[in-house]
Amino acid sequence: MVYTRKDVSTLTSAERRRFVTAMLEVKRRGEYDEFVRRHIDYYVSDGDGGLRTAHMAPSFLPWHRCFLLDLEQALQRVDPGVSVPYWDWTRDRTRTSAPWTKDLLGGDGRSSDRQVMTGPFAYAQGKWRIKEGVTDGDFLMREFGRPRKPIQLPTRAELKAALEDPVYDTAPYDSTTTRGFRNRLEGWGHGTGNATWENHNRVHRWVGGHMLGGASVNDPAFWLHHAFVDLQWTRWQRKHKGARYLPERPPGSRDSQYRRIVARHEKMPPWGVTPASMEDHSHIYRYA
Amino acid sequence: MAGGLALTRRGVMRGLLVSVVGMALAPVVAASRPSGRRHPRDLSFDEVYRGRHIFGTKSGSDGRAAFTGGAWQVTVDGRPLHLMRRADGSYLSMVDHYESYPTPLEAARAAVDELGPAEQLRAMDGGADGGRGTGTRRNGTEGGGHHHGVHP
């Protein structure tokens, strides 16, 4: 049965309540923190050695697609009618718009310690204690827009620039790649200042607090953000008919990326599925 | 896939080290910034920044150091700050994962900028959790029951 992922701003109050309830139950069961750990474990940077799957790599998109599906399955074990909504940050751009309402993710952190004080994920509600953090706080933290040095969410034009690139990814398939849809969307740039992080990366920065660090999955906003990123892959495919995940073949043994990235028909850890097999999700879910 | 070759994140963290291959390419920003005691030769730093003691040194004790040029060990108030290296030579910290900085010192300062007044780094790879994520995540066994993919 194909299910639908919806724009979070269109959810009914019942849908909001069910999503929140399922998230809190996945957390209560102890399953949620395993997602936090897995994301930490798979963050391999391209200046260090080893296989990169989740970030700074062409499999950024299929890896997070699988990751979302795993979370969604955990949610659906609680409530089969729940799916992960997406947050369109090109449209819902204020600190009080969806998904930052009291019946969904709650709002910004307070200024003294960035602690989220509203909504179901506020520490005082007793159901969302941070266990796998980079720092010792056990409450969820956010700092919208980085008040110390204000930044804005990526714009529709910035996202469009990524979508218009007709090539999925280009050598060296890492964070220094300047062309290709994947890194324009993932958002690794060059030099210093705001231009060095775009689209996906910039949203992590804008939310701030936990979303900025290695343990970003602690903020349920992670999933709504990545559902929207996942939607962009679908939109890109629609826009560039016939365009495929790249590289098609693994880099050779003399290539700097030898055994460091996943080619289209190679198995991607930890799921053992190939990027090619993750290109079409239409028989699992669709976007509304 | 070459899963067995991959380093796990925590495996890297265990040593709290970051390779400095290509260190010569990194801008020598640290040397030009006002700070406390420093050792210009290896760009180590030891300063108080916004009330936090940040310390970074290039370790030579690692056996690979002779080949890689050493590795960095960075602490904030005595607690290890894990750094990662980007292919362009810049540094990411565990606290600030979606932006990189030219030097370990700048990455450490940026991490401090993100810490709340009473917030301390957590010793993420210490004792109780020490056995976790030691490579088993990469051998294909984890997620063996997760073949949702295109075959839900």
Automatic annotation (TrEMBL), chain A:
Cofactor: Cu(2+)
Pfam families named among the record's database cross-references: Tyrosinase (PF00264)
SUPFAM superfamilies from the UniProt entry: Di-copper centre-containing domain
The entry's keywords: Copper, Metal-binding, Oxidoreductase
Protein name: Tyrosinase
Organism, scientific name: Streptomyces populi
Residue ranges occupied by any Tyrosinase copper-binding domain in the UniProt entry: 55-72, 219-230
PROSITE patterns hit by this protein: TYROSINASE_1, TYROSINASE_2
Stretches assigned to coiled coil: none
Gene Ontology terms for molecular function: metal ion binding; oxidoreductase activity
InterPro entries: Di-copper_centre_dom_sf, Tyrosinase/Hemocyanin, Tyrosinase_Cu-bd
Gene3D superfamilies listed in its UniProt record: Di-copper center containing domain from catechol oxidase
Family stated for the protein in its record: Belongs to the tyrosinase family.
UniProtKB/TrEMBL annotation, chain B:
Record has Signal as a keyword: yes
Alphabetized InterPro entries for the sequence: GriE/MELC1_sf (IPR023199), MelC1 (IPR010928)
GO biological process assignments: melanin biosynthetic process
GO molecular function: copper ion binding
Domain of life: Bacteria
Sequence segments annotated as region (Disordered): 122-152
UniProt keywords, alphabetically: Copper, Signal
Coiled coil region boundaries: none
Name recorded for this polypeptide: Tyrosinase co-factor
